[in-house]
Amino acid sequence: PSPPQIDALLFDLGNVVIEIDFQRVLARWARDAGCAPDRLKRDLVIDEPYKRYERGLSDLSDYFVHLRTALDVT
After folding, report:
1. How open is the CA angle 11-15-16, to the nearest 5 degrees?
2. Model-level pTM?
3. If 0-12 CB within 10 Å is exposed, 13-18 middle and 19+ buried, where does residue 33 land?
4. Distance of CA 30 to the CA centre of its chain
5. What is the pLDDT of residues 1-59, one digit of tens each?
């Protein structure tokens, strides 16, 4: 028999294969959002909408709507 067809391959690169400098990430996100990095660091939390998105129970556009509302950014 032939091997099963693979539809997708998922793996986590962040701080597993590639070291991520979260201070730089926050600085970039804050610049793009027009707010202070400290504010994002304080207000960006692992909440229920994040957990739902991570489990594939909501899509990215819904999560972005939540983030814009929660962080009061455009």
Report:
1. 45
2. 0.63
3. middle
4. 14
5. 788 888 887 777 777 888 889 999 999 999 998 889 999 899 999 999 999 999 999 99
